[in-house]
Amino acid sequence: MKNKGLGRGLGAILPVEETVIERSHAVQEIPIDRIEPNPLQPRLEFPEEELEALAESIRQHGLIQPITVRQVGDKYQLIAGERRWRAAKRAGLTHLPAYIRTADSTEMLAFALVENVQRQNLNPIELALAYKRLMEECGLTQEQVAQYVGKSRPAVANTLRLLRLPPEIQKALKEGTLTEGQARPLLALDSPDLQLQVFHEILKKGLNARQVEALVAQYTTPRPKKPAREPSLAELQLTELQKTLSYRFHAPVTFKSRPDGSGEIRIQYSSWEDLERLLELLQGRSA
Most buried one in 138, 151, 216, 228, CB count within 10 A? Predict the structure, then answer.
C-alpha cells in the first residue's frame, strides 16, 4: 500500500542521501540465524494463525518481498519485516532476501512504525504507544510525529488520549473487541469507574459508536432540575444543540442563558493538549 503522506513526512524528518538509498535498494541474501528482532518494534501482537498462513505461503512460493535490516557487528537487526522473518523461520528458510541500510534508533522506530501503519497492522493501543515512544525516546513533538505518519496533529493527539483509558478498556482495544470509534467517547467521562461502567454496557448491548456517544451524553450533559413550567422551544433547541456539540467535541459542553437573551457557551477541557485539540476543531483544522 502506497501512502504519499507517510513518504513525505518521513523524508522531511529523516533526509537520506542518494548513495544510501542506492545501497539500500540492492537486495542481499543473509543467513536467517544472524537476524535479530527490532527492539523498537511497535507491533506487540503476532497472531499464530496469521504467522502459520504466511509460513505456508512462504513454503510454497518463497519470500517475495525482502525484509529491511541494519548491520550490528556480525548480526543484522530488523528494521522492517518482523512478521515475514518469523514466518520464514517457521517455513524452514535458511537465508532471506534483505535490504541492508544504515539507521539510528529514531529511524529504527520510525521505519518500523511507518511500515506497520502502511500495512494497518497496529491496533489502536500499539499505535498510541508507538507515538508515545517517538515523543519520549526520540524527543519528537506531536507535530513531528504527525509528519512521520502522514496524519494531522489532532489525529495523533486523539490516538495518544486512548492511553488514558483504564487497562481493561485498553486490552479490549488491543484484542479488537472494542473499536476506536466506540472507545473515544469514553474519554469525555470524568472517572475510570464510569468509563468502565459504560464500557461493560457497550459489550453487553453491542452498542455502535453513535449509540455510545448518545449514552455518554446522558452522563456528560447536566440534568436540569425539574422545571416548574414546560420548557420553551428555545430552551429545547439549546438542549439539543448542547448534546450535539458534546458529541462533536468529545467534551462536556454547557449553555448558560440569561433572561435578556444573552448567554455563555462553556467547553470543558482536561489538559493543555486537550485544549489545543479543541482549538483546532473550532478553527476547522481537524482530521
Answer: 216
